[in-house]
Specification:
Layout: E1 40-46, H1 51-62, E2 68-74, H2 79-86, E3 95-98, H3 102-109, H4 117-122, H5 124-127, H6 132-137, E4 147-148, E5 153-160, H7 161-167, H8 175-187, E6 191-194, H9 200-215, H10 218-224, H11 234-249, H12 265-271, E7 275-281, H13 283-291, H14 293-298, E8 300-303, E9 318-321, E10 325-328, H15 334-345, H16 350-358, H17 378-390, E11 394-396, H18 398-401, H19 404-419, H20 424-432
Parallel strand pairs: 1-2, 1-3, 6-7, 9-11
Antiparallel strand pairs: 3-10, 4-10, 5-7, 5-8, 5-9
Length: 434
């Protein structure tokens, strides 16, 4: 899950057009292309602190395979743009890292990816190895074009245990409890919940959960699958109204629009005891442990997002980035395809899960509870794993699930909702016209 200094949720993708050869197993940008004559598989991965796990797996695979994997790590801020440029060209990778959902939907439409659904179903040790909600979150139109290859990234309600103890309160079980906490902490001159309004994707997290708790995951599922009228569901209006009410009530303070996450402003504000809560991706723990270790070890606590009384959503449902995925270029065939599938299947094994856990990640594979004691922070690891394992749904972050031509205006609409430039009804109308 990410270096805390990278844009979280791996949302900052790549700007550099150059490939980087980071180890002896890495290949240059040029290749024989997907399905080419070379007895190797060209694999592209986003370069960050977790790629060491992929490097180790490639070395292990290459020890026994006649077809070698060449791992190319691509740094920067525009990975997805680079991928879109490469796909369909002679320099396209055979296997590549992605976010599932909307990030690969265009490739699926153009028949550029291998449909892995039947392969997963035919090999239970492969298909049943992954937590179903994680595997399904990367699907496109109900078909699987990706296999989980990184740790899970749910959005979690973090809170300051010391501030809560001093106020004599508990983390909110319901949305009404949350509004009560807003009043409690305002009276104590503490910002109830820090919000990095300078980065609108942090506001998105609040709206994602509000809609999921109000109406269930099916509403956004319909929207991301092309049903624009899904945004007209009454639950969308109700969620937007609750978001506006939180802003109006002072839940995020008066200056949240000037707060940034990418410069560590929000996390530092939280760690300094200026805010009681922080809704953020699971990487926030690692971020705090790196930058504010005393706070992380002595004050940081975590909880699930509260339910909405009368809401249709399942209280165990999650939002965030379920994980990242490997997809296979449709031009890969024959022995190279067989090798590609064997490479993917290694990600379902216990050895790979153990490597992720040792790196501080929570794997997307089922049945790894016994391995979590070896995690750097076992209590936090078990909390994450159990919430993901038991989630009936895990909704991919909207800005990754939607196509790129919808994601940007969607974030603009959310920013305007939280800033008061759009009221709830205007927000709904704007979403219908994405």
């Amino acid at each position: 899950m990410r270096s805390p200094n990278l844009r979280p949720r791996l949302r900052v993708l790549a700007t550099s057009a150059a490939c980087v050869v980071a180890a002896s197993t890495l290949a240059a940008c040029g290749s024989d292309g997907p399905g080419g004559r070379s007895d190797s598989l060209e694999v592209w991965v986003y370069q960050d602190g977790s790629t060491v796990i992929q490097e180790e797996l490639v070395e292990r695979f290459n020890e026994t395979s006649d077809i070698q994997v060449n791992l190319t790590q691509i740094p920067g801020d525009n990975y997805q743009d680079r991928m879109r440029t490469a796909m369909g060209s002679p320099n396209a990778p055979d296997i590549f890292f992605n976010w599932g959902g909307g990030s690969i939907a265009d490739f699926v439409e153009e028949d550029m990816l291998i449909d892995l659904t039947d392969e997963l179903a035919a090999d239970p040790e492969f298909g049943d190895a992954f937590i179903p909600s994680i595997l399904d979150s990367g699907a496109v139109d109900g078909r699987h074009y990706g296999v989980p290859m990184r740790g899970v990234q749910p959005v979690i309600l973090f809170y300051n245990q010391v501030l809560f103890d001093e106020a004599g309160v508990e983390p909110p079980a319901t949305l009404d409890d949350l509004f009560d906490l807003v009043d409690t902490f305002q009276q104590r001159d503490i910002t109830p919940a820090v919000l990095a309004g300078g980065d609108p994707w942090t506001e998105l997290m609040w709206l994602e959960y509000l809609l999921d708790r109000q109406g269930g995951s099916e509403i956004f599922d319909a929207a991301r699958n092309g049903d624009a009228e899904a945004w007209s569901d009454p639950a969308v209006l109700a969620a937007a109204e609750r978001a506006a009410e939180l802003v109006e009530a002072g839940a995020f303070g008066n200056n949240f629009r000037s707060v940034s996450y990418t410069t560590d402003g929000a996390s530092t504000f939280f760690a300094q005891g200026e805010a009681a809560m922080h809704l953020m991706g699971s990487w926030e723990y690692s971020n705090q442990l790196t930058n504010q270790p005393e706070f992380a070890e002595n004050e940081l606590a975590w909880a699930t997002f509260p339910v909405i009384d009368g809401g249709a959503g399942d209280p165990a449902a999650l939002v965030g980035n379920p994980t990242n995925y490997w997809s296979v270029n449709a031009q890969v065939e024959g022995d190279k395809l067989d090798a590609a599938l064997e490479f993917l299947k290694l990600h379902a094994g216990e050895e790979y899960a153990s490597s992720l856990i040792a790196n501080g990640d929570i794997p997307a594979t089922a049945g790894v509870e016994s391995l979590l004691d070896d995690a750097p922070a076992p209590e936090y690891a078990r909390f994450q794993y159990e919430m993901v394992r038991d989630a009936p749904s895990f909704t991919l972050s909207w800005d990754q699930a939607l196509r790129s031509n919808q994601a940007t205006p969607m974030l603009d609409n959310i920013e305007k909702l939280f800033s008061g430039q759009l009221d709830a009804e205007q927000f709904v109308e704007a979403m219908r016209n994405l």
